[in-house]
Structures are given as structure tokens and as C-alpha cells.
Write a structure and sequence with these properties.
Elements: H1 2-22, H2 29-49, H3 55-77, H4 84-103
Helix pairs in contact: 1-2, 1-3, 3-4
GO molecular function: transmembrane transporter activity
Subcellular location: Cell membrane
InterPro entries: EmrE-like, Small_drug/metabolite_transptr, Small_multidrug_res
């Protein structure tokens, strides 16, 4: 169950990172509220996952899901560039996340 909590914590991290950008420095009310609620949910789920998962693995995977997810959201919704260097870099993050998951023992 901890891995499911961690996965959804990472997805909510993507939500709050994306809406934080849309809030334009917390000057727009709706994206600011969504950011704060998504942060609360993300941190809460991360805390539940950390009850049983190792700190290093849980935190690294949570931030990795957020980083990769934010990268994809940036490409799809914010027209950010999809250069080969950026794509290879994200693939390296995914490889690291996979290694952490496989070596966590949970």
C-alpha cells in the first residue's frame, strides 16, 4: 500500500508544481488554492508512505515522479522544448527511480 501512497503523492506533486506556475507567483487565487490543497495531499500521502518505506527511497522517488511528471506537463501544456538532452536527462531520472524501487527491498 505504501507504494500506492507514494505514487499518488508524486502525482499530486505534479499538480501543485503545475498550478504553482499558473498562479504566477501566488497572484492568481484559483491556481494558488489548488496548489496549496495539492501540496497538503501530496505531503500527507508521502508521510503515509514513509511509515514503511525507507526515507531515501521514498523521498527520491516522490521527487522523481514530480520531476518527470512536471517535465511531461511542461512539454504538453506549456510548450516547453523537447530537446534530445532534456529527454535523455529525464530518462536517466527514470532509470534512477527504477533502480531505487528495485533495490528498496519493499
Amino acid at each position: 500500500m505504501a507504494w500506492i501512497y507514494l505514487f499518488f503523492a508524486g502525482l499530486f506533486e505534479v499538480v501543485w508544481a503545475s498550478t504553482m506556475k499558473q498562479s504566477e507567483g501566488f497572484t492568481k487565487l484559483t491556481p494558488t488554492i489548488i496548489t496549496m490543497v495539492a501540496m497538503f495531499i501530496s505531503f500527507g500521502l508521502l508521510a503515509l508512505a514513509m511509515r514503511t518505506l525507507p526515507l531515501g527511497s521514498a523521498y527520491a522517488i516522490w521527487t522523481g515522479i514530480g520531476a518527470v511528471g512536471a517535465f511531461i506537463v511542461g512539454l504538453v501544456f506549456f510548450s516547453e522544448p523537447a530537446t534530445i538532452f532534456r529527454i535523455v536527462s529525464v530518462c536517466l531520472i527514470v532509470a534512477g527511480l527504477t533502480g531505487l524501487k528495485l533495490s528498496s527491498g519493499h
